[in-house]
Specification:
Elements lengths: L3 H21 L11 E6 L7 H16 L8 H17 L4 E5 L11 H14 L6 E5 L8 H13 L6 E6 L5 H18 L2 E8 L2 H4 L8 H7 L4 E6 L1 H7 L12 H14 L5 E3 L11 H20 L5 E3 L4 H29 L9 H17 L4 H8 L3 H8 L5
Parallel strand pairs: 1-2, 1-8, 2-3, 3-4, 4-5, 5-6, 6-7
Helix pairs in contact: 2-3, 3-12, 4-5, 5-6, 6-8, 11-12, 12-13, 12-14, 13-15
Amino acid sequence: MIPEDVYAELDRRLAPVDAARAAAYPGERSTRQPVHTCYVPADAVVPGLTTAWGTAALAALDEHGLPDLGLDPGLVEQVLPRVREKLAREPVEDLRVDSEDGYRGPPDREDDDVTTAARVLAAEPVLPLVWGTRAKSLEGPTRHRGVRSLDLFLGGLSGRDRAVVTLPKVTAVEQVAAFLPVLDALEQAHGLALDLELQVETPQAVLGADGVATLAAMLHAGGGRVTGLHYGTYDYSASLGIAAAHQASDHPAADHAKATMQVAVAGTGARAVDGSTNVLPVGDRDAVHHGWQLHAGLVRRALERGFYQGWDLHPAQLVTRYVATYAFFRAALPAAGARLAAYVSRVDGGVLDEPATARALATVVLRGLDCGALDVAEVEQATGLRRDDLDGLAGRRGA
């Protein structure tokens, strides 16, 4: 037997490592993750915006009907009533007021537009689960203008206590570090808490000049403020010289960047978020159906790869966002439920699951519950578990 002082020395050496890892990788957050982020230009924010998006989505569905989306027809039939209810009740889960690329107002109107947008949101009786604004980048030409617009927007949010700030086109760890005192000052000036998202839109965010992957350093430089990394489909693709016709969130270059994002956020509590498609479901029936088929395929592909949130740029995209998302989670429930029930009861079956797999199974069921694809009663029937049991298996903080 080795002496006890060997154990003591081992613990002495590794205790700081244990503490540092626990601080840097606290695990999945217990808060619900939206299935999408809807970007609306600051000059297009009007009262009742999110309700209007849901109404427009339902109108598109009624007018054009769903084409073949490459999904199980039985599942589509199951989810359509749920999708309709969702579009009427909570069409937008995450809203970002855009004063960056989506903003099309003239420079001399930006102060008024961002201030008006903030006042509209402040007056809304109900806001989405998550909401906030996308500022301009911290590159020299837009730095001061971006911070000014952010200051004006947050200053107009009387009565609100929390918002998200999305920082686009981040190229250096130093930009994240330099932005933290700005966020501190904005919080103090306007009395609300601010979360930070970083947009992955440049090659420098993925690979630095020193040959080191940059994203993890950016994330950890945020000191716990960073809640997500969002992929910017078109800026990133263009910066690599990819021809416009081939710029898409399923391009191999996109997969590389997003896989790097996924590794960077793992265990931190931040989330990796897929980008958008600019092929919108608008126009005649054929054009709308083409847009829906493309969007549904991209949503399903992202979900299969572990990206549970993406961008939506048009109300009609909400139709396929929810149809594809709900179908994914409903298809996952029977097998996940059986495997969880067997895992908890220690019953031998055709699959021998480990704790990490049980965590993943519980998480996918919880995501289905969170977004409305699944009901509590059917989850309990499929798994034999209550919500708090699933939270515990998933390792969610606060569970």
